[in-house]
Each structure stands twice: as C-alpha cells, then as structure tokens.
Specification:
Strand content: 15-25%
Number of strands: 9
Distance between the termini: 47 Å
Number of helices: 12
Shape: globular
Largest sheet: 9 strands, antiparallel
Radius of gyration: 23 Å
C-alpha cells in the first residue's frame, strides 16, 4: 500500500476507532503481573470518582508533576469540550489505562496514537489528577470575561497580595488552569500531564510546570512525617484525612461561602520557594533548631521530647526566655498565632539544576489547600514574610492560586461542569 496523506490517515483513524478499541483490552497499561508490581499500596489505583477530587486528602504520593496552563481559545464550547475530554482521559489514566480508547499501539500505523506510550507496562502507581481554575480564567489581564463566567468567580479567588520579600517571576506564576499530578512513579505523573497537554493542544498551552520528589507533608496518620531539604521534619501538625471535623471547617468550601459550584471543593495555593541550602548548611545545629523551633532529629518542639508533643507557646526556660523563640517558624505559623487558621499542606522537594553561580537551584514546591485563602494562607504568610528568621535562607519565586471544584461523581460528569453548565 502507498504512503497515505495526513488527511487520509485521519479519516481512516476515525473509521477504525470502534474496531481498534475492541482489541485494546490486551493493551491496557495496568495489565501488569501482580507478582512483579511490588507493594500494591504504592502501585495500585486511587478511585477517580467521588465527592471530592482525589489528590487533596489522598495519602501524599512520593512524586509530583504540577502544570499551569493558559487558555488560548476564545471559544467557550471548545474549552468545555476539552474539559470533558480531559476528565475521560484522567479517569482512564488513574485506573492504569491508556489516555484514549485506542491507546499507544492499538491504532493504524498511518494515524497518531491517542496515548504517548511511555507508561506502557507500568501500574497506576497511585496516580491522582486534581484540577484548579485560576482568577484569570474568569477575567483576563485586560479585564475581559472571555467565557461568560466572571460573575461566578468566588470572592475567595482574589489574587494573592504581594508579600514582603517576594521575588516572584511572572513567567512561572499564575495560570488560567492548573493540574496537579501525584504518583509514586515519576514517569506515571509526567505521562499524565503530557497526555492532557496533547489533548488540549489548540485550546490551552503550558505556561509553567514543576517536577517534585520526596513529599514534604503527610496527609494521613498512616504516613510518617517526611523531611524537607533543610533536613527537618516538615508538616508534623498538618491537617490529616482522618480529621473530619477540622477538614469540614478548614478545608472544604461550602455553598454558604458564596458560590455553590465550589461546594465540596477547596482552594489551592502553590508557591515555589528557593532554599539557599549552601548558606543553611554552614549554620550551626543549635541555630537551625532555634530558627525552626523543633529539634532536627526527633522533630519534637523545643523543650519537649516527642514529635507530636503539643507546642506550648508560653513555656519558658530556666533563663525566663520562651523555649520556642519569639521569631521561630513554628511559633509564627501556629494556629494560635493566626486566629486558628490551619492548612492542608501537600508540598514537594525540588532540585532544578544549578543557579549558574555554583549553587544548587533547590527548595520546596509548597502546595496548600484551604477553605478560604483570605482567612488562612494570606494571614499566615503575611506574618511569616514579616518576621520569620528563616527568610534569610528562602526566596519565594513563583506563586499561584486556583479554585479546585468538587469531585467528579460518575462517568459522564466532568471537571468544571457545575461552573460551565
């Protein structure tokens, strides 16, 4: 047979979808020998459908690929169609299947596959995909209501203020949409984002993205507390999936908050924080512990012995000085110092090569979910930015805020349906 034109190949691909899909079952990505798949807790699938989006209170996986997109179409229907297609692909990929019904190798040679193929043979690895909508989706930088949804922008989705010491780079901040891909295999997370970007071509373009390794928070009591690149346990006092009452009050948005389409959703703040680790590494252990307010080994609050011992902000040493220094990080971030504000943190370490000056470009990709950033992240970060001694070793270079709607309830539902339909 002679070489086909692109138009002919695409026509044949459309005709052959049903037949190709019928034979795709043997090519399902997740069809892996269980004996070789390792720990099913790490390799299994996380349910996609539910009341809330997966990837928020889901026990934090070890790897991250976070991406922010700009919407490049002005056509509302094209955007809605893409969200439908993204949701279908997300449901398939989180179940360990190819992104499309034909798959990476199930179609005709003359047409592009509807999966990129780098995850063939790999299990789901706990993949979760979580979507969020940025303030600029509702009104762009020129004030335009491109998609007729400006009136539905929640009050809590106002742009974050500029905090003291911010060194934000516009090219890696903001975005109309975001997708957070978490998995226990980096290739699975990257595969998921790559395929969503492929499906969205012509509707969205990648604005910026971030890879992360080594979670820096625990979101379930079954997980041990991990360490950040400063070597300290991070997120000891984090909200956990088991804290039902606290999650209701501090994590999940409610209709009474102003916009019914966000009922059961949450607000995501993402901040890329460069850590000046070479400077930190030359700081004495005692000073490091005073800056943090915890011991480096056990993670216990200063003056206590266990990691989960409660922090007593009033406790004083023999010299009459507070055991937790007045400008220690844990004191400034504590709910008692912020009108009870609490966050569900879900950050990751990153190392992005060098900074060109002989230092590692490394740090924390901070992710936090909450019911209302105006009452939670903003006051906490304002206090930290003004007073935290740790600022000597940190640079905030990227920032984003996104409204993450409730979960997709069943097949046929899609990300953002309550906002757009």
């Amino acid at each position: 047979m002679g070489r086909l034109s692109r138009r002919q190949a695409m026509t044949l691909a459309g005709v052959g979808v049903a037949g190709a899909a019928a034979g795709a079952g043997a090519l399902v990505r997740g069809a892996v020998d269980p004996a070789s798949a390792g720990d099913t807790h790490l390799t299994g699938a996380v349910p996609f459908y539910g009341e809330h989006q997966a990837g928020i209170v889901t026990p934090a996986q070890d790897r991250l690929h976070f991406v922010a997109f700009d919407v490049v179409t002005k056509d509302r229907e094209r955007l809605v169609t893409m969200l439908r297609e993204w949701t279908e692909a997300a449901a398939r990929m989180t179940a360990g299947k190819d992104a499309g019904v034909i798959g990476a190798v199930g179609g005709i040679p003359e047409a592009p596959p509807d999966d990129t193929g780098e995850a063939l043979g790999l299990p789901p690895s706990g993949l979760t995909l979580t979507i969020g909508f940025g303030p600029s989706l509702f009104r762009d930088a020129d004030g335009r209501d491109r998609f007729g949804i400006a009136a539905r922008r929640p009050a809590a989705l106002e742009e974050l203020p500029r905090f003291p010491r911010d060194a934000l780079q516009a090219e890696i901040s903001g975005g109309d949409l975001c997708v957070q891909a978490c998995a226990n295999d980096p290739q699975i997370a990257v595969h998921a984002i790559r395929n969503l970007a492929r499906i969205g071509m012509g509707v969205v373009s990648v604005r910026w993205s971030q890879l992360g390794f080594g979670r820096t928070s625990s979101t379930s009591r079954v997980q041990a507390t991990p360490r950040n690149l400063f070597g300290f346990k991070d997120g000891t006092a984090n909200l956990k999936a088991e804290d039902t009452d606290l999650l209701r009050d501090h994590l999940w948005a409610q209709s009474a908050d102003g916009q019914s389409w966000m009922d059961g959703g949450s607000y995501l703040v993402a901040r890329k924080i460069r850590m000046l680790i070479e400077t930190w590494d030359r700081t004495s252990l005692g000073e490091q512990e005073e800056i943090v307010g915890r011991t480096k080994g056990s993670g216990a609050p200063l003056g206590r012995t266990g990691e989960f011992d409660p922090i007593d902000l009033n406790a004083k040493g023999d010299d009459g000085e507070p055991l937790i220094p007045k400008l220690a990080h844990v004191r400034l971030a504590h709910p008692d110092a912020n009108n009870g504000a609490r966050l569900l943190r879900r950050g990751y370490n990153f190392v992005d090569g060098s900074d060109g000056l002989g230092r590692l470009n490394a740090g924390l990709f901070f992710i936090a979910y909450q019911r209302d950033p105006r009452k939670q992240f903003v006051p906490v970060q304002t206090q930290l930015a003004r007073h935290d001694v740790m600022n000597e070793y940190l640079r905030h270079v990227s920032s984003g805020l996104f409204a993450c709607p409730a979960g997709v309830r069943e097949p046929g539902d899609f990300w953002g349906r309550a906002l757009f339909v």
